[in-house]
Amino acid sequence: MMEKNEVDIIYILDALYYNVHWKRVIEKKEPCIFVCGPQNPILKKDDIKLRELVKEPFYLTEADDNYQFALTQYLAFHNLSIEPVLEVGSTEVISKMIHETGGCSFLPYFAIKEHLESNYLSQIHVKNFHIDMFHQVIYMENKWVTTEMLEFIRIAKATLL
Q1: What distance in Å separates the CA atoms of residue 8 and residue 20, rounded to the nearest whole number?
Q2: 3-state percent breakdown (helix, strand, coil) of the chain, nearest 5
Q3: DSSP assignment of 46-97, as one string?
Q4: 147-160: per-residue pLDDT in tens?
């Protein structure tokens, strides 16, 4: 879209993207983690393996979300998959569902940080598992940078960094 001049600047949470014609002004690593309701019995286990976890009921974001796609690819590489109970775009709906049902999800840390800090949700630590996404703000290198773009970058930096 930027190459066709349809947008001036983009913010994405995804794997790192590179293009020789892009200028990246923000790049911040964001861990994606497994979470569940605090009453889920899986939290009592010391050594949780991915093979066990995928058998739990999962509430996930929609399949085309970048972090769910990364999870699906990771699982496929390990000959595993998740059949979600529900796929929905709202992390708040997912948080409420897993809190009430004890189910599990996979979400970026920033989206559920407050729920973790208040013990509304709990992180599931999985042995030998790690996926990061990156907050990125990018524009075309040869683009004239407007006052509005600079203000967007300033606000994004203040919020993300």
Answers
A1: 16
A2: 35, 30, 40
A3: SSB-HHHHTTS-BEE--TTSHHHHHHHHHHHHTT-----SEE-S-HHHHHHH
A4: 999 999 999 999 98
- What is the Cα–Cα distance from 41 to 79, expressed in whole angstroms? 25
Instruction: Give the Cα separation of 9 and 2 in Å (integer).
Output: 7
3-state SS class at 37: coil
Give all domains of the chain, ordered by start, each with its CATH number: 9-160 (3.40.190.290)
Task: Give the model's confidence band at 17: pLDDT under 50 very low, under 70 low, under 90 confident, else very high.
Answer: confident
Write out the two tokens for 42: 């899986």
Q: Which residue has the tokens 């994405």?
A: 12
Assigned token pair, 92: 């708040």
Q: Could you give the CA distance from residue 118 to residue 25 in angstroms, rounded to a whole number?
A: 33
pLDDT of residue 61: 92
Residue owning tokens 């030998």: 128
Could you report the per-residue pLDDT of 45-63, keeping only the tens digit for each? 988 999 999 999 999 998 8
Task: Write the Ramachandran bin of 128: left for phi over 0, alpha for psi from -120 to 50, otherwise beta.
Answer: left
Q: For residue 34, give both structure tokens.
A: 């497994």
* Residues sharing a CB contact under 8 Å with residue 17, sequence separation 6 or more, in sequence order: 136, 138
